[in-house]
Amino acid sequence: MNNQINDAPLTLRDVAAAAGVSLATADRVINGRPGVSAKTALKVHEAVQRLGFRPLAAAAELARSRSWRFAVVLPSGGNRFMMDIADNVRAQADWFRARRIAVEIIETDVFDADILATELTGLPGRFDAVALVALDHPRIRAAINDLVEGGMSVVTLVSDAPSSRRQHYVGIDNIAAGRTAGSLLGRFLGPPRKGEAGGSVGIVTGSGSLRDHAERRFGFGQVLAEEFPHLTRLPPVEGRDDPDRNRDLVRRMLAGTPDLVAIYNTGEGSVGLGEALAEAGLARKILCVGHELTPATRRMLLDGTFAALVAQDPGHEARSMARVLHALVTGQEIVAAQEHIRVQVILRDNLP
To answer: How crowded is the C-beta side of 66, counted as CA atoms within 13 Å?
Structure first.
């Protein structure tokens, strides 16, 4: 599924309309000429800030008559976090328009290397740059390298392919995120009672090939091995972020693991996990830690199904992706501190 975002350039007329003033008045304020009251000038400046209008940058782009085409490749399906990223990309329509950037959101099966690689090979000639949720697979690394060699700017988003020639990664440190999840889970469980074993911990993951999930599992395992050796990690089960698959996987996990004390979900599809626990009468009895704040995980935090979430800000990632791609195609510097995406810990007590 493709979603085109309007690429018409933002103009001073748009600023005037947003401020509720005439074009001549907006022009006076933008160019620092007298004859405008402080109150009216404030309205114009607020409109400039709200729309992200940069008169010098916009004028330079227009003078060069240069426009850009960006593709954003995201997973298809009902992944709520990825839908939030798409919504935040669309919310930047004015920012893109001011820079003469047309953006197309392409939804595809990023879990399938053949499908994703085919999608990527169709981008040259249609786009100047692409941001994609990358599968860490030889075919995808080769496809990314071909795009870069052909002159496209490539940024990985949320999940990286670090051995490819992509120019930048936009996302959190997923090893740190996994370690955070492991630390929270182990501390919430506490030490075993005297004479009792620690119990088993189930791991539900989206994909063995998505780098973000693999790094989270690695960080999680590090902490459990180092700090909570009394807990036994079960082999990860792969649900492709699908609630129905996750529900079936957790049902089997519950049936085959009588000493199960906790479940860690490295990705989406948490609804299925919660449904399986509720069916078994074990919601709030088996401790759960997961990722990303969505309407579903918010409810599960509030009702106690989840003890904690390790999250990232989809709005920050969408804005960072846009800034980085624009910097790459225009040869500007990427401000590393501005593009650093933080790992967040969300409990029921600090829900935003």
So the answer is: 12
Alpha carbon distance 103, 95 (integer Å): 11
- Rounded CA gap, 322 and 49, in Å? 17
Written as six digits, the tokens of 32 are 């620092």
Whole-angstrom Cα distance, residue 116 to residue 109?
6
Q: Of the ranges 7-11, 16-20, 226-230, 272-276, which one carries the lowest mean pLDDT score?
A: 7-11
C-beta of residue 141 within 8 angstroms of C-beta of residue 159? no
Q: Which CATH number fits domain 1-170+320-337: 1.10.10.410, 3.40.50.2300, 3.40.630.30, 2.40.50.100?
A: 3.40.50.2300
Q: How do residues 294-310 score in pLDDT, each as one tens digit? A: 999 999 999 999 999 99
Structural domain spans, the chain = 1-170+320-337, 174-311
Backbone φ and ψ for 2, nearest 5 degrees, come out as: -115, 140
CA-based nearest residue to 221, from 183, 255, 188, 173: 183
Asked if 289 and 264 count as a contact pair (C-beta separation under 8 A), the reply is: yes
